């Protein structure tokens, strides 16, 4: 009987640790991921109410820096005009779901755009040089599972225009 108790305790401990690892136990997200391939600028959001619209944008990839798969990661980008403390826009996304990101693997590009931006009748390139244009800074927060939000970094958005990619549609040959 005493032998049985000795065996059951390690077995229970092993089961608890295995279950925690499989469920995506919370980790220090700042050590778990690395931000790579960073790009920032002003995205051409098209025309809104007859006006050209530009929104601050950040794009990057996340690399899993851990030796185990990473699961359930969420990102929140908070945009503020430089010199102001109030939020000027935000963007939220779930980037890594239950299937996880393998150890050492990198996500596809993640793009976060503010829901607010500048509108004008001016050409988009002129908007970036307008005297009333205010520069913006973005702070990106991450969390894994039910952990608290943690800052991954903060970046100024340069006055660079990001134009949506043009993808021509294939057409069938004319006879």
Structure write-up:
The protein is an alpha+beta fold and 175 residues long. It has one domain (21-162): Immunoglobulin-like (Sandwich), CATH 2.60.40. Helix content is 17%, strand content 42%. Strands 1, 2, 5, 6 and 9 form a 5-stranded mixed sheet that branches. Residues 5-24 and 170-175 have low confidence and may be disordered.
SSE layout and pairing:
Layout: H1 2-22, H2 29-32, E1 33-48, E2 51-64, E3 73-81, E4 89-96, E5 110-113, E6 118-120, H3 124-127, E7 136-144, E8 150-157, E9 161-162
Parallel strand pairs: 1-9
Antiparallel strand pairs: 1-2, 2-5, 2-6, 3-4, 3-7, 7-8
Brief summary of the model shown:
Helices cover 17% and strands 42% of the residues. The chain has helices at residues 2-22, 29-32, 124-127; strands at 33-48, 51-64, 73-81, 89-96, 110-113, 118-120, 136-144, 150-157, 161-162.
Domains (count): 1
Which value, in Å, is the CA radius of gyration?
23 Å
CATH architecture: Sandwich
Poorly predicted regions: 5-24, 170-175
CATH class: Mainly Beta
